[in-house]
Amino acid sequence: MIRKHGLVVGPFQCNCSLLVCEKTKEAVLIDAGDEFERIKKLCETQGVTVKYSLHTHAHLDHIGAVEGLKKWKPETRICLHRGDEDIYKNLVMQGQLFGISYNPPPPVDQFVEHEETLRFGEHELKVIHTPGHSPGGVCFRFEAGTLGETPTVFSGDTLFQSSIGRTDLWGGDQRQLVKSIKERLLSLDEETQVFPGHGPATTVAAEARDNPFL
Ligand SMILES: [Zn+2]
Ligand SMILES: [Zn+2]
Q1: What is the pLDDT of residues 174-210, one digit of tens each?
Q2: Residue 31 CA: which ligand is closest?
Q3: 36 lies in which domain range?
Q4: pLDDT tens column, 136-187
Q5: Ligand 2 centre and the CA of 58: distance in Å?
Q6: Ligand nearest to the CA of 158
Q7: CA–CA dist 197, 12 (Å, integer)
Q8: How much of the chain is helix, strand and coil, in % rounded to 5?
């Protein structure tokens, strides 16, 4: 099984998750968005090796800890969809817009693609490309029986409980976002647990039924 540890990081309260293969202690991070020292401490406490630092997209609140992470453990691979490469490279400019200063981020190690499988420890996850909130927005899906009894998806800022991502930032497109959600998330098993990039968890069934934006 995979054990999930959650941290809410930074001024934008991003949900950062550390997912650990219990048997091998190999792990992945999802959205190491800020507060590197807290993330580092969690990794040390759990005694894990972080293979991938996965990012649902490249907005500042989802990538702010990569610099620290990469300096600490250069072997950790930073993964992003190519559609968000420009936004990623412009972290300093993103920060200026919100009055936060950053150093330029280290290069992306691996560009992930729709339906690509990534493996860590004895487990694997699938990438789902869900453009709309940003061009390279992705979700990460785990099969039933790995992170819980039901399937699980990490939805970034694409889908929230009773809401969807904003589309007024770089490359945002609301029609495309709704299309992505309907075709690639609501089509998943309705029992699927959804862990958004901000706020509480939900399920595919609940959002299909109640989300006023869909
Ligand atoms: Zn975002
Ligand atoms: Zn966000």
Answers
A1: 999 999 999 999 999 999 999 999 999 999 999 999 9
A2: 2
A3: 2-210
A4: 999 999 999 999 999 999 999 999 999 999 999 999 999 999 999 999 999 9
A5: 9
A6: 1
A7: 10
A8: 25, 30, 45
Cα–Cα distances in Å, from 36 out to 63, 93, 158, 174? 10, 20, 24, 32
| Model confidence pTM above 0.85 | yes
The candidate with the shortest Cα–Cα distance to 80, out of 17, 19, 30, 16, is: 30
Burial of 209 (0-12, 13-18, 19+ CB in 10 A): exposed
- DSSP sequence for 117-185: EEEETTEEEEEEE-TTSSTT-EEEEE-TTTSSSS-EEEEETTEETTEE---SSTT--HHHHHHHIIIII
- Provide the β-strand partners of residue 141: 126, 153
Burial track 72-92 (b if 16+ CB lie within 10 A, e otherwise): beeebbbbbbebbbebbebbe
Ligand nearest to the CA of 196: 2
What token pair was written down for 192?
A: 């699927």
Q: What is the CATH number of the domain that holds 24?
A: 3.60.15.10
Strand-pair category, 202-203 with 2-9: unpaired
Give the chain's domain count.
1
